Amino acid sequence: MSFHPSFSSAVSVATPPRWAVWAAHLTTLVVLPSGLWRIAMVLGYPGGYTETGFGPFETFGAKAWMLALSVLSELVAFLTIGLVRPWGEVVPHWMPLIGGRSVRPMAVVVSAALGAAALTVIWANVPWWWTYPHEDMTPTGNLVVGILYQPLVLWGPLTAAVTLSYYRRHRTAWRRGPAS
Fold this sequence. Notes:
By secondary structure, the protein is mostly helical. Helices cover 56% and strands 0% of the residues. Keywords: Membrane, Transmembrane, Transmembrane helix.
């Protein structure tokens, strides 16, 4: 069964389970608190840093990096939704050159699995935020920033779970062969 009446594919793929859809959407939310914090810093709010600690973040380069990191993180998290939506099966028609082409499921699975593993490793130490020294932050800032970053621990595992769901749905479709 396909996702949407206008969606066509050579292989019929089962609808993603509800938990996978929720998990995919949740990935965009776990990235949001830290991204909003960085954007607040770009706009001049010290974000829990002392006056001296905030100084390096006031340069154009630092602001551009923080803004780019926030936007890029949210876009990468948004890609997880493609694992439960039709555009994870067929590239949307509005995209130049590749629109309407089928997505290679194994390429999606491998890249999403590698991304999930990398995200899990990158954010694995976040639960221990408060055990590291943060002399350039106020005590309240240290607490708040630690709280804002905690959801990132879920990003890799959520992506891995949705990737596994995508793999299972496509593995079943590969066994059945082309849709009639």
